[in-house]
Amino acid sequence: MIESNQHIDSQTEVDTLETPSDHIARISLEPFGNQEDGVTVYLEGVLTLDHVTDIHQKTELALSQFAHVRLVLRAVEAIDLSVVQLLYHLQTLADEGGNSLELIHELPVSMTALIDKSGLKIKLTVE
Q1: Which InterPro entries is this protein grouped with (predicted)?
Q2: pLDDT of 97 over the 80 cut
Q3: Which residue(s) pair with 38 in the sheet?
Q4: Domain ranges in the chain?
Q5: Which residues of 5-19 are buried (b: 16+ CB within 10 A; e: fewer)?
Q6: For residue 117, how many other CB atoms are within 10 A of its CB?
Q7: pLDDT higher than threshold 80 for residue 8
Q8: Over the range 76-85, which residues count as b (16 or more CB within 10 Å of their CB) and which as e?
Q9: Which of the two residues, 101 and 112, has the higher pLDDT score?
Q10: I need a labelling partner for 18 at 20 to 30 A (CA). Which of 1, 10, 24, 26 fits?
Q11: What is the dihedral of CA 62, 64, 67, 73, to 10 degrees?
């Protein structure tokens, strides 16, 4: 787990999170460009309430160190409302802090339709 006094370096960091119900999520951070340009946070697997704290901590750390952060949802098997709410919150944090948070996804239409139906105005870009 990344603590608030840690920094994201040029190496890719990967965490695999397993919950008691065997819902596995993977979070990885990868700087892009000249490393000072920004960082990409990749989220994969089953994204549920069990993973919200880790996703929040890593993305907030990235936003504190980089002006531009890409949050990429790929190979997502399931996503629950708590993660959708977190994405909305992170987008609001980035906007208020003057950061750029780009949410990119490879989600099926059925998942994006449910996100739209939640009423939260999340700016998702299709990869």
Answers
A1: MlaB-like_STAS, STAS_dom_sf
A2: yes
A3: 32
A4: 13-126
A5: eeebeeeebeeebee
A6: 8
A7: no
A8: beebbeebbe
A9: 101
A10: 10
A11: 30
Please give the structure tokens belonging to residue 83. 């993660």
> How do residues 102-127 score in pLDDT, each as one tens digit?
999 888 888 888 888 877 777 777 76
